[in-house]
């Protein structure tokens, strides 16, 4: 009995040591697992790779179209705009997986001022990412459908949800249209929009993709938010807030449920501010 | 006594956990400190020292090839070409361009082309066009009306590599706009500011 007592005491002592040690080791493993993705990200940075878009929601891209949209457009012929402005949160949308061409499979968000005579002219600025690549700022001018566009890109930026201002501003002194990002002029048209477009011009605010199987940027928890929507008035050249009186036309080309059960959302928050994002359909 | 042993056993394990967490955190902080977020090379003190020796050797080679660079630059197709909406003008390079190129990590046209093809932002913008055909690279003097990077001022000329390759049109437009006809080719252009070792412009001109 004495031996049994000794064994029991020893076992109890061993267990009393082992349990807290094992718990501590488990804690170490769990914390290390949480920290490891940050280490991996830093390692990628050392190889000169910029943050890239997440894995595509759909492996197979469907019907290609130069532009599928989710957002709002000013109604052609209404208002008095010669410029447009909005703040947009910086997010990246995953491009579908079967088209690896960055120029053929991109996702973007932007603010734009367009011709009021439907001749296809516009000036815009925003963000874009080609398939599997980093997010960049861009600006583009397009005199009309009879001309080819001119584009400018910036370096890689993070899709960190930060809010930035995108404006297309008519310059009365130069008789030109400026494409601006956070107040910095990125492009200046070499032509007068009033000489090439019908007035009033049309403000537009959209997320855009070449495939509906790609995701417009944002999620339900972290949507891409378009706010402070403004039009530059042609009578005083000043920017004024756009109203929520039916002036803005809603377009969502990705509203239908996809094969993965997701859909594009285009939700008014504080009219005319709105969100776009991709999430499970039916919410 | 048993209680005391259990007490120390538990705390030893926690101390070990804290030490490991601190080690991992320090590793992350170190990695962040040497990580570039703009696709530019990460460097260390050792790398700088090695780069300095390499640059000295490159300068010596440049003295011997100075006249060849000048002749090549004067023949560059980019001389006098401008991109009005982007606000960029490109002219023949100055002699300063040759010396800046010699001192740059991109000291040859081939190096400039390779860097353009590997740049993440250029890849996001131009994709496979960067490698579908062979880009050309020439030294040039550049002035800008709409600079978007630090170090470049409106109207102030700087020396640069201008790398060009043909690629398909990128069209973002809104409802009611129509892209150019299929097969439309554009100039995909990267302008590398030699003084500040940065891509100052990524342009598509169709």
Could you please describe the fold and organization of this structure?
The complex is a heterodimer of chains A (283) and B (206). Chain A is an alpha+beta fold and 283 residues long. Helix content of chain A is 17%, strand content 39%. Chain A contains two helices and 15 strands. Chain A has helices spanning 2-46, 193-196; strands at 68-74, 81-89, 106-114, 122-130, 135-142, 150-157, 163-171, 176-181, 184-188, 202-209, 224-233, 239-241, 248-252, 262-268, 274-280. In chain A, strands 2, 7, 8, 9, 11, 12, 14 and 15 form an eight-stranded antiparallel β-sheet that branches. In chain A, strands 6-5-4-3-10-1-13 form a seven-stranded antiparallel β-sheet, with no helix packed on it. Residues 1-7 and 31-56 of chain A have low confidence and may be disordered. The longest helix of chain B is centred in the first third of the chain and has 32 residues, at 2-33. In chain B, α2 (45-74) packs antiparallel against α3. In chain B, strands 1-2-3-4-5-6 form a six-stranded antiparallel β-sheet. Chain B has six helices and six strands, in the order ααββααααββββ. Chain B has 206 residues and is of the alpha+beta class.
């Amino acid at each position: 009995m004495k031996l049994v007592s000794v064994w029991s005491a020893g076992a109890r002592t061993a267990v009393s040591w082992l349990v807290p040690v094992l718990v501590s080791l488990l804690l170490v493993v769990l914390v290390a697992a949480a920290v490891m993705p940050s280490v991996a990200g830093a390692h990628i940075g050392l190889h000169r790779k910029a943050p890239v878009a997440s894995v595509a929601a759909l492996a197979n891209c469907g019907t290609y179209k130069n532009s599928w949209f989710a957002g709002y457009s000013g109604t052609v012929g209404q208002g008095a705009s010669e410029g447009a402005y909005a703040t947009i949160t910086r997010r990246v949308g995953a491009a579908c997986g079967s088209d690896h061409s960055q120029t053929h499979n991109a996702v973007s968000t932007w603010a734009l001022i367009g011709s009021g005579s439907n001749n296809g002219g516009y000036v815009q600025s925003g963000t874009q990412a080609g398939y599997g690549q980093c997010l960049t700022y861009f600006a583009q001018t397009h005199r009309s459908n009879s001309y080819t566009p001119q584009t400018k890109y910036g370096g890689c930026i993070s899709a960190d949800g930060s809010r930035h201002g995108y404006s297309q501003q008519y310059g009365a002194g130069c008789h030109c249209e400026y494409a601006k990002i956070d107040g910095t002029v990125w492009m200046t048209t070499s032509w007068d929009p009033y000489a090439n477009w019908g007035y009033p011009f049309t403000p537009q605010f959209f997320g855009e993709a070449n495939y509906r199987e790609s995701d417009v940027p944002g999620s339900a928890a972290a949507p891409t938010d378009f706010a402070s929507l403004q039009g530059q008035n042609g009578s005083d050249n000043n920017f004024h807030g756009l109203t929520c009186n039916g002036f803005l036309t809603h377009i969502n080309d990705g509203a239908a449920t996809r094969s993965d059960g997701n859909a594009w959302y285009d939700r008014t928050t504080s009219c005319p501010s709105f969100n776009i994002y991709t999430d499970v359909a039916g919410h | 006594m048993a209680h005391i042993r259990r007490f120390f056993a538990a705390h030893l394990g926690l101390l070990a956990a804290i030490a490991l967490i601190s080690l991992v955190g320090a590793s992350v902080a170190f990695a962040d400190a040497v990580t570039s977020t703009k696709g530019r090379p990460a460097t260390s003190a050792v790398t700088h020292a090695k780069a300095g020796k390499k640059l000295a050797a490159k300068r010596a080679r440049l003295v011997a090839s100075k006249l060849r660079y000048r002749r090549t630059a004067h023949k560059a197709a980019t001389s006098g070409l401008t991109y009005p909406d982007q606000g960029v003008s490109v002219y023949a390079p100055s002699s300063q361009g040759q010396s800046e190129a010699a001192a740059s990590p991109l000291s040859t046209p081939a190096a400039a082309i390779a860097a353009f093809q590997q740049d993440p932002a250029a890849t996001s913008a131009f994709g496979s066009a960067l490698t579908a055909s062979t880009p050309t690279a020439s030294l040039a003097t550049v002035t800008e009306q709409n600079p978007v990077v630090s170090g470049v001022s409106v109207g102030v000329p700087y020396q640069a590599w201008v790398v060009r390759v043909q690629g398909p049109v990128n069209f973002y437009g809104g409802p009611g706009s129509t892209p150019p006809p299929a097969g439309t080719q554009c100039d995909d252009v990267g302008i590398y500011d030699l003084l500040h070792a940065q891509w100052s412009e990524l342009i598509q001109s169709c």
